[in-house]
Amino acid sequence: MQHDHETKKYARGVVIGKLYPVHAGHVALIRRAVSQCAVLDLILCERRGEHPSGAVRESWLRELLAADLAAGRVRLLRVEDTYDQDDSKLWASLTLNWIAPGPPHLAAVFTSEAYGDPYAKWLTELSGHQVVHECVDRPRTVVPVSGTLVRTKPMHPRIWPRWQWAAGHPAIVTAAGDVPDLLPLPTRAWYILRVVLCGAESCGKSTLAQRLAAHYATAWIGEVGRDVTVDKLRAAGSEPVALAAEETALTADWHSSDFVRIARMQTAAEDTAAREAAAQGVPLVVCDTDALATLIWHERYMVLDPAATPAAPEPTGEPVPAPAPIQPYVAALEAHVRDLPAHRHRALYLVPDPTKVPFVQDGTRDGEHLRDWMHARFVAELAARGEACAVLDADGYDGRFEQAVAAIDAEVARLRGGEGAE
User: What is the pTM for the complete model shown?
Assistant: First the structure.
């Protein structure tokens, strides 16, 4: 049997770039290089402050190229880019330092850019071996996408052609047809807009989440914390049932570690739903809470300690300092929240105001007197973190649905680059 380096056009090739983000054009370029090279060195360049980060992009590449990496056909290296983008001699020198020395010696560089010719010239001169430039789809006619389009207009109709949307109207998902996907699945899932309902108890969040999901032809992710609450109550021999507003709800036995687990489970459920929506060509999902909301709920149950402080505190929005035994769990929750950019591009938070809707006792709610405090905490925390947020304060549930649709439509229009943008 002949070895790959005897049957392939090139014994060794290189692809280098930011792949910011990884799109179908990049995948096609890499696939072409793999088809022609016995071994491909794939160099991923990253700069600080990029979103998605280099680590996230590397995880996508490792998923997409898993078989080639496992077989040794591709060798993936992530490097920090602090260099002059236009210095081809410098980049050729860096490349030869980064990749393992031959044999086999580098024989080809694959790009879709103008820098490929001078880059290959300097690779030849500095290595002492002929390196040719294979230019692949430079005019972007085979795969009409660019990193700039994806970063600046991640909900552009060309990226999501199956999702038919117009402001103020329900969305429709059409058949796939022959329209190619311009983003691979992990990239698409990351760019899906997360619409997050959060806030105080009994404000209609879950009902609104389901209604919004139906309007936008997408999935909604339920509240993991509620499921855990019910499981805890049942494990203790109690069954949650609807109660009159003045009746006392059952109370679960909570530990701070429960909230860390809930936050991770909520994010995992969100990731799964985003993957499923991405596979169907839908660019948003609706979340009935998220990990950041879980951080606030932990503060309410484990730091505020309503059992010791039965009277409602002033709704100033200020956080309550955690006692020393709980601080490690707060730190773990904060760490998970800081990691959310590895899971998603952007979230839009919708916070229903509790003052204009009645409190409904479902058998698990024990914080009617804390609703104003919770609302203020959510609004203040989201503002402090610079998150996109809309407060829903209409008098009735229908009015709040209309407010939510208006906020989401405005965000969708912005992420599409304006109505009808091409």
Answer: 0.91
